[in-house]
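Problem 12. The chain below contains 179 residues. Write out its predicted structure in token notation.
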Amino acid sequence: MKRNGALDAQIAVVISHRAEARGLETARARGLRAECLPSKGLDREVYDRMLVAELHKHDVDLVCLAGFMRLLSAGFIREFPNRILNIHPSLLPAFPGLDAQHRALAHGVKVSGCTVQFVDEYLDAGPIVIQAAVPVRDDDTTETLAARILKEEHRIYSEAIGIVIAGKYRVEGRRVLLT
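Solution.
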């Protein structure tokens, strides 16, 4: 990261499998390449091969997932080893998958948060790069907790991307050690 917090990186392309994805609209408004690659009716392996080809076409080095609600195939993950990041609204390994904030409240946790992890072949199970804790308040709703977690997601995702781009880490087993 640069001193002003900007990443020393260029966004090569923004891709969604949903044409109505807000990320595509935001990317286009900022003058970025934004493409819809529909997945409906396609086998996961077939779709992932198409997605890999599209990412290679744009010389993508690091894949950053946000709101991508699909499991990636092992073939896709092998194309980008330790080069796929995902953000999740819980302190993994707690509450993987959908409805993390709702489940955190239902379980009565006192602290929730968010996690940036490398993606592996399993749901929200890859090595953790960075996490941020968010206190759970007695009067929290799913929406209020989600809003506070989202603020932290925006902060730590940029930080994690900076760490990976700069190569300031190493992976030992399931642990990401910052260097």
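Discussion. Residues 14-178 form a domain with the Rossmann fold fold (CATH 3.40.50.170). Students who got a different answer should revisit the alignment rule from Section 12.3.
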